[in-house]
Each structure stands twice: as C-alpha cells, then as structure tokens.
Amino acid sequence: MLLKDIAEWWNRLPVAAKRYIAFQAFTIPVLFAWILVPYLMLATGLTVAEAGIVLTVASAIAAVVNIIIGRVLDRAEPVMFIALISFIEGVAYLVYMYGFLASIVLLVVAAAVIERLARGFYPVYAVYEYDVYPEEIREKAFALHNLVPYLVQLATYPVIGYVLAVLTSNLSAQIASLCVFASASITLGFLALVWLPRIGVRRIEVSQPLLLRRIPRAFIKISLAMIVFGIAFELCQPLIVANLFIEIARNPLLGLALYETFAALPVVIVSPLILRIDRRYGVALLALGMGLIALADLLLGFSYRVEIALLAAIVASSGYALMDPFFMDVLFSTIPEDYRGTLLGSLAAIRRLVGIVMPAIAGFIAEINAHLPFILAAIIVVFSMSLTLNVAKPRYSKL
Fold this sequence. Notes:
The chain contains 17 helices and 2 strands. It is mostly helical. It has a single domain (2-197, 211-397), classed as MFS general substrate transporter like domains (Growth Hormone, Chain: A, Up-down Bundle), CATH 1.20.1250.
C-alpha cells in the first residue's frame, strides 16, 4: 500500500522535480566526505577546538569572497549554480587530500575555504525547489525529497564505511579516498548541466541585505525559528559528532558510518507515511518531530556507549522526517513569489553568518566536554519549536 502511495505521488510530480530528487540521491554517497573530512582533521592531529577554529576562519574568508562574487553572479539559471557547487566541492576535496597527506594546515584551511565558497551558493537549492515542487502538494514533494536520497544513504553508507574503516583502515588510504569523492563530485556537476531541466533566470540573492519593508511578519518569525534551529544544528555538526565517536567508539570512522546509516532508516520508514497524512496534522507533526530531535540531542549528551549514540541517530532522524516537509511548507508559504530569491538568499546569508562563528564556539565547548554541545543544542531546539508552532498554527488551522 505504501509503495502504491509513493508511486502515486511520484507520478504527480513534474519532470523537473523528479530529476532534481534523483540528482539529490546521486549526491548522497559523495556527501560521505562530510563525515570523513572532520574525522581526518582530528585523526591527523588537530584538537576539536583547533579544527573548529580552522572551519571558522575558512567560513569567514569564504563569506567575504561570496559577497564579492555574489554581486556578479546574482542573476543566473539555477542549474548553473547547482553544477558550480559540485565543481567547487570536488576541488575542495582534492585540496583537503593534499593538505592531510602533506600535514600542511594552511592547505587544510584553503580546502575549507573552497568548500565553504560552494556552500555560499546553497540558496539556489531552495529557489529551485520553490519553483519545481507544486505548492498544493509541497509537503508530499518534500517527503519524497527525503525518502529517495535516504534510501541511497541506507544502501551505500554501510558499504563505504566498511571499505574505509575496515578494509582500508590505514589513515593514508582514507585520506587518498578523497580523490574518489572529488572525481564523483565533479562528475555530478556535469550531470547537473546536461540533465536537470532549466527553469529560467532567477535572481539568486547570495549576499543582498534584508528588505525590511517587504518582509512578511510570518516570514520573520519562521526565519528566526530556522536560525535558532541552525545554531542547535551547528552545535552538533559533524566535527562535534566525530569528536564524540573518537571518545566512545573503538573504530570511530566505522561508528560514524553506522551513525549515518541508522539516521537514514527512520526517514525511509516515516517519509512514505507522510504521503498519507493530511496536512491538517502539520502542527502536531512539527511538535513531535522537533521534540524528538531535542530528545536525540539529550541522548547524545549523556551517551557513553556507541549503542546509545546510534539510538540517538534513529530518534533524531525520525524527528527530522516528521518535521521537515511541514517546516519547509510553512517557510515557503510565508514568502511572496516575487521576492523568493531575495528572502531565501537573505535568510541563507544570516544563517551563513551563524555558521561562520559556530564551528569555533562548538569546538571550544566540546574541548571542555565532548557531550556538552549536544545538551545545549537540546535546549535551543525547544526554543525553536515554540517559534515554529506559533507560525504553523494559523496556517494549518485554516485547512
């Protein structure tokens, strides 16, 4: 029955949405590098605080560069940006590899700068999703957007983790594997160019200031909720999770791979259920989902065994699968179509400012105690939940 629901909603999506979701699924194995790089930072001798400083310095440099190039490239077909992101991240992984192999911290910083240049263009994803996901079934589209990539993660991450952490447990081999991730990322860039449907030129505001007179109040509230939630997310970023697993796991890299595998399982199970749930229950699912994420952070905060951390991955992922389709629906519902690029870009710019300082802050907190960032994150998620529900109630009460 669930397969029938998946097929039914999938068939209702436009071609651009289907190809975009498939493209996101193709990127999932490459994103294992997001786990591998922080682990290698710590495994090659950096402390968690030092690694946090490296990422903060890199984010600050990248932000300045993004402001400059953002003013030049703020008008383009979104597919061009999606391809550019893959190209830049591929180059970053190559520079990371040389930096780790040569033990040159400046090269690692340079790689982090390059990687964060790509992240400066991430607003293009939201703009593309805004255009290709039909408004009347947007939460269903985001459920499929989660389901398909996480199916790929569930299938590939145990294999990648086993190969890197068990079959090739040598640190040099793990570093050299970044060349494979780089090649795959660059290939995805070419795939985006030739396969993703073009939707026309859109104004992608990478670094423009907020236009206060034109911003709906509901958008301000949900944006604040997203920013606060982003702070909690940054406190639990991959560097901090890697630091925790180095403390509690015999084979930290394998543990991290299993953590991401366990995180994929609930999304695969829950997302099809979202397809059968009426959006009138959006408020309840938002509350349940964000509550589960806070609980998962607490589990990590008090976990001294890998098994508890893996349970936390399941709980957090269940919460994400429940909340994300409705959170994105609420966010997009507050954005006037004429200003979608400006508002989404401005929101991303503010979140990027948070992302600049948080690696160092999270690193210093984790240096004090590896569990403390997760406990603080749980408290922050609860605050974000209260803001989110304040905006969601009026939207879903009308249905």
